[in-house]
Structures are given as structure tokens and as C-alpha cells.
Amino acid sequence: MVTCISSLTCLTLLPKPLFNHINLIKNFTLLKNFKPQKSNFYSLMLSPKSLSSLSLHNCSDPKSYLQTPLASNDDLVILGIETSCDDTAAAVVRSNGDILSQVVSSQADLLAKYGGVAPKMAEEAHSQVIDQVVQEALDKAKLTESDLSAVAVTIGPGLSLCLRVGVQKARKLAGSHSLPLVNVHHMEAHALVVRLTEREVQFPFMALLISGGHNILILARELGQYLQLGTTIDDAIGEAYDKTAKWLGLDLRRSGGLAIEELAREGDAGSIKFKVPMKQHKDCNFSYAGLKTQVRLAIESKNIDAEIPISSASTEDQSSRADVAASFQRVAVLHLEEKCERAIEWALEMEPFMKHLQSLSACLKVVSGGVASNQYVRDRLDQVAKKKGLQLVCPPPSLCTDNGVMVAWTGIEHFRVGRFDPPPPANELEDARLDLRPRWPLGEEYARGKSEARSLRTARMHPSLTSMIQASQQEENT
Questions:
Q1: Cβ–Cβ < 8 Å for 53, 449
Q2: Phi, psi of 417, deg, nearest 5
Q3: E strand or H helix at 45, and its extent?
Q4: What distance in Å separates the CA atoms of residue 453 and residue 272, rounded to the nearest whole number?
Q5: What's the pTM value of the predicted model, to 2 decimals?
Q6: Which residues of 158-197 are buried (b: 16+ CB within 10 A; e: fewer)?
Q7: What is the helix (H) or strand (E) element at residue 206, kind and residue range?
Q8: What is the rounded CA–CA span in Å between residue 364 and residue 195?
Q9: Sheet strands side by side (includes 444-445)
Q10: What is each CA distance from 111 to 18, 119, 211, in whole angstroms?
Q11: 308: left (phi over 0), alpha (psi -120 to 50) or beta
Q12: Which residues are paired to 185 by β-bridges?
């Protein structure tokens, strides 16, 4: 398993009817009066008012596109492409929930070689396999490009060099076959994939996304509308797990969460008194940098040599490593529990009628892969959920790490409500400027979620997905 792989936990707070998808593209086959202008992400909020002014930016054959009937909401087939970090992934998904294909090319060997993600090496690896991965996804689905309704691709957040490979491929394919393009937020895709596998998960719900680089608590009110309750102010839990695993001489080709959990079973969780991070901060933000330092100092004090694999260490040394792993895991997850429980309380305050619905099928979703595949993490978060009357739900492990299915499904969700861009130009230059968003917030910050300890850089950060969609909706209403 890889350092940058994302995983997700999702707390459904309020069951209500699924988002009322506006079937705006089902009943028309011809869009008129296109006016070439600069296209931007989710600029096409289709409505009866806007159908007559739909723009097709640089479409190589606008007449052909305009005269082609678009698939109905019930029969969409979308190809999803994901290259935000170190897995090259593609999948074909139908809007009825059928996963027609799923292909992932892992960079686990590169990760083990470099001890983490090396952006340039990751980019080269993506470039070498992207064509093969996409073609294999189409072949396994027994489809060709002409059978697709649209192409969805992750444009952020992630590593710029890696994002570029996927976006270039998506634009080339979409342009060559006059297919609409849906630009996808990586973290939203992780949050929404549960709606593919667990249809009872409805808006609003709360999501805890935990990965190598992210810890985010969000309240998902509806599609594209997210409120950030808390986030990482320095290092995320996935980073802490992976670094601890490395310092303990564990196998880096596996997930840090799984490796630490396995070793921790043999250790004493109370043997080392690590301090729980941010106890004095009554917010929902996370910090694992200090815990990492505590762990490193403990390892040094026990003279543990990471160059010696644990399988080759003495019995005494193995016992010391197990104690460190168990003590670290206890405190790392306790920090996760405390912040998650407070966030649930905040969400319930914003949705006060929630207390009358606690007997209904509200749920807690913990995906496999990365940190959240750790059974200890699952068990502890399950206790938090049950304490609030929630239920644990887990989608299949194959949809928990970075994958093309989540991108394709998110593309379907947004395409259904008219959020997509027209086909790119078929002859787009290789060095064309692309809309990549390496630092792209998912939602707006909740006022109580802001922390004095937070020191996130804001330079070159794109407006959040939520604010972009809200601005587009306001423009449509004027």
C-alpha cells in the first residue's frame, strides 16, 4: 500500500430523500446559439434559462456535438481517470451503479525504493502506463470511446506533475471523440463513492477523510455543498503511521496502518505515555507532528535501528518495537476519536431535528485501505458512532484507495445535474495550459472550526469547490 493513498470515513447524520436530480439534459437533443467563450470548471449549470447560451469552448466540431442526443440520467456511461498521486487508475461506471471495469496500476515498488512519493518519478510512471490503463478499462467494459457519455478526471488536489498526466489523457480522449468533460475533486470523489455502494447514504452526512496528506472533517449538505468542520494543521494521521512504520523498520510496501496494527497486537499500549495532541484546543482540527516527534525520541531512546528489518531483530528489540507501535496507535486514534466526536456534536447542533431521527438508519462509513483499513481504527470509530446512535457501513476494499470508480461516479453525480464542460478541442496542443488545482479546498470553513494553532499556507490555493458551485448557481439565478 502506498503513502499517498487516501481513505475515508463517513458519518451520515440525517437521512432524507436523495438529491432531487434535475433531469435537464434528458428531454432535449439540440442546444442552440452557442457563443464561444472561455470555459471554466462547472461553468455549465444547465437550466431552461441557460440552454440557449451554452458555450462550447474551442470544440473541434461544435455542430456535431450540439446535434448529438445526450444520454438520459438512467443510461449514462462515464470513464473515470485518476492520477492525483502515485496510483494510475481508470474505470467505467454506469449511472445505475454497475461497475463495468476497474483498473489500477500501483507504484508500490517506487514507494519502497524512495521511501515515499517522488513526484518526478511518479509522473514518469503515470506517463508510461496511462494509455494502457485507460484502454484496459475500456476493453474490460467491452466498450469503445463512442459508447461513453462523458469522461471524468481528477484535477485536484494532488501533485501537479501527476495530475497533469491524467488531465492530458482525459482531454485528448474527450476531444478526439467529442465527449463532455467532468472535472473532479479528489476528496469529494472519496466522499461520494459510498453513495454508489451504499444507496441508503443520503445527504446530509458527515465525512472524515484520513490519508497520508489529509485529515478533513466535513458536513456534506448536498452534492457540491460542503462545510469543513476541521482539518490538519500540520501532519495527517496517515503520515504519522507511515513514518512510525518506517522508523520501526517495517515493510514500506504495505500500508502503514496495517503494518502498525499487526505489530501493535504484540505490544503493551500503556508502556509509553505519549501525550494526546491538542487536548487544550476545543476544536475539530488535527495535529500529528508533535506525536511523530514523541515517537522518534522514544525509538531513539530504545536504540532501535530501522536499518535492521524487524524480522531480523532480536526478541528484545522486537518487543520494544511492538510497545512503541501499540502506544503510538492508542494515542493516534484517541486523537481521531476526540475530534470526530466533537464534530458530530457540532453537526447535530446545526441539524437539531437529528435527535428525532436517531432510530433511523444513520450510518458511519469507514473505508478500507490506508489508515482506515486498520481494524483498530474501525473498532474505535465504530464505538464513537454507536455512542451517537449511528451504524458502521463499509464499501468494498477495492473502492477505498485511490481508484477510477470514485472519479467516474462523482462524474455521474455532477453530470446528472448539468455540471460539466464541453468537449476540449481535438487538436489541443501538448503544452496547452491546463486547469490543475494541487491545493484545492473541498468546502468552506465552519467558524468554530478555525484554530489559533492553524498555520496553513493560503498562497496559490484555489477557491473551494463549494464556493465555486455556489457562485455559479448565484450567477444562474440572476
A1: no
A2: -105, 15
A3: strand 44-45
A4: 26
A5: 0.80
A6: bbbbbbbbbbbbbbbbbbeebbbbbbbbbbbbbbbbbbbb
A7: strand 205-211
A8: 13
A9: 391-393, 363-366, 6-12, 205-211, 215-222, 225-231, 444-445
A10: 40, 11, 16
A11: beta
A12: 156
Spatial contact of 80 and 415, defined as CB atoms under 8 Å apart: no
Q: What percent of the chain is modeled with pLDDT above 70?
A: 74
H/E element, 182: strand 181-185
Alpha-carbon gap, residue 218 to 358, rounded angstroms: 20
Q: What is the distance, to the nearest Å, from the Cα of residue 27 to the centroid of all Cα atoms in its chain? A: 33
Q: Is the pLDDT of residue 242 over 50?
A: yes
For 311, 377, 386, the CA distances from 269, given in Å and listed in that order, are: 21, 14, 24
Range 51-58 contact pairs with CB under 8 angstroms and sequence separation of 24 or more: 51/24, 54/422, 55/422, 56/422, 56/423, 57/421, 57/422, 58/424, 58/425, 58/428
Write out the three cell numbers for 397: 476494499
Question: Scanning the structure block, which residue is given the C-alpha cell 490543475?
Answer: 436
Q: How does pLDDT run across 102-136, given as a tens digit for each residue? A: 999 988 777 667 666 788 898 999 999 999 999 99
189 neighbors 209 (Cβ within 8 angstroms):
no
- Per the model's pLDDT, the better-predicted residue between 96 and 59 turns out to be 96
Cβ–Cβ < 8 Å for 57, 36: yes
Judging by DSSP bridges, how do beta strands 150-156 and 181-185 pair with one another? Answer: parallel
φ/ψ of 127, rounded to 5, equals: -60, -35
Residue 8 has pLDDT above 50, yes or no: no
The alpha carbon of 54 is separated from its chain's Cα centroid by a whole number of angstroms, namely 30
What's the half-sphere exposure (Cβ side, CA atoms, 13 Å) at 157? 19
Question: Poorest-confidence range of 92-96, 356-360, 383-387, 400-404?
Answer: 356-360
- If DSSP codes are grouped into helix, strand and coil, which group holds residue 407? helix
Q: Let me know: does 453 contact 278? Beta carbons within 8 Å.
A: yes
Most confident of 7-21, 253-267, 386-400, 442-456: 253-267
* pLDDT for the residue 257: 81
Secondary structure (3-state) at 372:
helix
Q: What is the pLDDT of residues 17-42, one digit of tens each?
A: 333 333 333 333 323 232 333 334 44
Termini Cα distance of the chain: 48
Integer Cα distance of 88 and 103 in angstroms? 8
